[in-house]
Specification:
The complex is a heterodimer of chains A (about 110) and B (about 110). Chain A has about 110 residues and is mainly β. Chain A is built from no helices and eleven strands. Chain B is built from no helices and eleven strands. The chains are: A mainly beta (about 110), B mainly beta (about 110).
């Protein structure tokens, strides 16, 4: 089955710790995205990547980092510099640029900072 | 200021009712997406449309580019339609910014 997987589903972190969220897709999509969702707010773009070894900051990149070493993988690291990391994180992918194609979403990771 | 506004924020309907969710946007767009988010958090894309109307089963999406408005209709609503419906627009000419509405939470009561 083709799709996007995210792990873990729930993640707990102590303040001051970095944590990495996994995102893998087997859809052969070039573009991948990370979004953050907070209650009462729309999805906000953290980072996106149009091609391997290249990525760009979204609206709220501060305190986050990414890598794109393989086409199918786009991990997100939430660093200790992120002041309010507790949120629901969604990864997505698409065949082409964001303006022209449907995005496919993973099931999400809910991060809670203790 | 929100580039994408949805209404209503919350909607409760009896099973079988016809439902309409509205989306208005303020930016120039190449296409508009309707997404569905289930209680578990997963999101699926329902429609991408740039003009006119699209239909998939009991769901119908319409868009009026001149008025910058789109509607999502659900005919003969069912409890399994209960979800959050999100409108999203990728604006033209601004890189890869994608604006999302805050969503409409729909509950269909049996």
């Amino acid at each position: 089955d083709g799709g996007i997987t995210q792990s873990p589903k729930y993640l707990f972190r102590k303040e001051g710790q970095n944590v990495t969220l996994s995102c893998e897709q087997n859809l052969n999509h070039d573009a991948m995205y990370w979004y953050r969702q907070d209650p009462g707010q729309g999805l906000r773009l953290i980072y996106y990547s149009q091609i391997v070894n290249d990525f760009q900051k979204g609206d709220i990149a501060e305190g986050y980092s990414v890598s794109r070493e393989k086409k199918e993988s786009f991990p997100l690291t939430v660093t200790s510099a992120q002041k309010n990391p507790t949120a629901f994180y969604l990864c997505a992918s698409s065949r082409a640029g964001i303006r022209t194609d449907t995005q496919y979403f993973g099931p999400g990771t809910r991060l809670t900072v203790l | 200021k929100n580039e994408v506004e949805q209404s209503p924020q919350n909607l409760t309907a009896q099973e079988g009712e016809f439902i309409t969710i509205n989306c208005s946007y303020s930016v120039g767009i190449s296409a508009l997406h309707w997404l569905q988010q289930h209680p578990g958090g997963g999101i699926v894309s329902l429609f991408m449309l740039s003009s006119g109307k699209k239909k998939h089963g009991r769901l119908i999406a319409t868009i009026n580019i001149q008025e910058k408005h789109s509607s999502l209709h659900i005919t003969a609503s069912h409890p399994r339609d209960s979800a959050v419906y999100i409108c999203a627009v990728p604006p033209r000419g601004t890189g890869n910014q994608f604006y999302f509405g805050t969503g409409t939470s729909l509950t269909v009561i049996p």
